[in-house]
Amino acid sequence: MRRAHHPETGEITLMGVMAALSDPIRVGLVRVLADGQERGWGELRAPVAKSTLSHHLKVLRDAGLTRTRQEGTRCFVVLRREELQARYPGLLPAVLAAAEDEDVGHQVAVSPSLQESSL
């Protein structure tokens, strides 16, 4: 796997962020990652094929919403909360509140067995 590109905070654009958040699966991924935990890609559960999940994670990374780290053959992802807050103050909390209120992305979750072991 080649090294993933992560836009610098100043390179993150509002249109890129909004486009990335235009899909309910990606909103669900952001909701799951909003707890601040770094998650292995294998921990994330969504009603899509693995290749489609990988595509959604790439869209979020390219837009600057997440940071991906590779360790051997495993990939880990974390929400770039501080960078997003610095670039667009209040945007992420507003998106998360609206997604919660409208139940957008509810079908995305963390694997229960993996979630329990991290407690």
TrEMBL record:
| Boundaries of every HTH arsR-type domain copy | 6-99
The record's section on Pfam families has: HTH_20
Provide the GO MF annotations for this entry. Answer: DNA binding; DNA-binding transcription factor activity
Q: Which residues form the signal peptide?
A: none
Keyword DNA-binding in record: yes
* UniProtKB keywords: DNA-binding, Transcription, Transcription regulation
Q: What is this protein called?
A: Transcriptional regulator
